[in-house]
């Protein structure tokens, strides 16, 4: 199918190349993941030797229960926190960025250049951390979940607006005109007609951003400190010191928090690839 | 085209009176409003505030203007300067490697190769995994005495170094893990670029008897230039801001030999030096802008010339 197959058009060579590629991929990518899984199901002593061996006894359930129970069910609380954070901030990003991207693409005004500049700034400029904490404190939002949700939305908007703007360009304007003639106001036009048509790009944004927010470590570290508020990435960070010798539990924890992105990957593999490329190239 | 059609409709006699008062548009400006408020308050305001607070001694409640003292301090402390140079090294090394490896992998993964789908998945999956999880895993694998990497090397008769404990290697070891984790995205972007090259060019090259190397050199490489620009810009921005992986693997150590600006910012923040921490942010901001803007201007201009 691909064009570059023509580049390597000597058929004999590919089997050797394939074999080398598969062996290298196993050493470089599969072994580290296998190591995580194996260590996660070992007993404490065997895990401490950090070697790549088959577990003497499979402790899948025991290790799982221990990790979940550790520090008063901190991981459970963290999973709840991370879920709330991810769902709320991704929902916010999708709706707000779709509205902004729609108007930015459709409406011609002298502000467009400036707005585009702001959107690009959001991709390039590193957020100023302590002044952001200062602003959050003024609003009483520091160390609160709504504060962190708004932060994730603010930092994620740029990327989403770019994706939506690019996609809206592919929707014919005649549709807007027809809806307007039929008496739809701006809100009905957007939420009734345009928004449903954005489905494929919405799926992309949801997948990419929920993985990003779920895996985010830095923002919760700065803007939502405290054990009660831990998100899943922070449990890892706390566990690292507490279980510095209990590698089996540490790796069980890594394994557990990798499951949501893994599910995303299995279901949306194709969609992630398509969305990330279109977004990245246009960005 | 579509713009004019709206205008002609508006100029039909019935609509003229209405449009004279105010041109109706279904694209309401207030659609920007929620985004603008959140983005303005939590991103734009702090960015401008950082310019002021970087010039102060600051306790979050009161600030005392001290001019450029924070910046003087930043560039006179050897450990903070080290953070600055490390940031540049880290960004250049990771970005350069992602360009080269990403292109090679993309050429490989778009060729007729067995298990292509498996290879694409396996290269891309680390992009989705938690950076902290990856960092902890590789800290264990890179352990000088028990780690799997040195274990494997010694089986081959090589004495592996203390990847994260030797000041000479710590930063580059973290950079290697960053490349391991991020090369999938670069590969993906290159795959998209290569797949969009028109088949006719490659067929014409084959008819003309070009070798694989010539085809790669004369067609694939120049035509995947937009992908290269994207990979360079994205990975430079990411590399300059990089924090999580370094924090998970070395905490800037041993000593401060693998500190980057982002970890310096966090350390100064933890220590309560908010003004200094914010000055670090401004230094990062200036570094990112000074590198990325001219580079993207230069790369994009060259692209038009092609």
TrEMBL record, chain A:
Subcellular location: Cell membrane
Keyword terms of this UniProt record: Cell membrane, Membrane, Transmembrane, Transmembrane helix, Transport
GO cellular component term of the entry, any: plasma membrane
UniProt membrane topology term: Multi-pass membrane protein
Domain of life of the source: Bacteria
ABC transmembrane type-1 domain span: 79-268
Membrane-traversing stretches: 15-41, 73-102, 114-136, 148-168, 189-214, 247-268
Keyword Transport: yes
GO terms (BP aspect): transmembrane transport
Pfam families associated with the record: BPD_transp_1
SUPFAM superfamilies for this protein: MetI-like (SSF161098)
InterPro entries: MetI-like (IPR000515), MetI-like_sf (IPR035906)
PROSITE patterns on file: ABC_TM1
PANTHER family referenced in this protein's UniProt entry, alphabetically: ABC TRANSPORTER PERMEASE PROTEIN MG189-RELATED-RELATED, SN-GLYCEROL-3-PHOSPHATE TRANSPORT SYSTEM PERMEASE PROTEIN UGPE
Similarity comment: family membership: Belongs to the binding-protein-dependent transport system permease family.
Protein name: Carbohydrate ABC transporter membrane protein 2 (CUT1 family)
Provenance organism: Kribbella voronezhensis
Automatic annotation (TrEMBL), chain B:
Record's bilayer topology term: Multi-pass membrane protein
Transmembrane in keyword set: yes
Transmembrane segments: 30-53, 88-110, 122-142, 179-198, 219-240, 282-300
Family, as annotated: Belongs to the binding-protein-dependent transport system permease family.
Keyword Phosphoprotein found: no
Source domain of life: Bacteria
Keywords: Cell membrane, Membrane, Transmembrane, Transmembrane helix, Transport
Protein name as catalogued: Carbohydrate ABC transporter membrane protein 1 (CUT1 family)
A UniProt-annotated Pfam family: BPD_transp_1
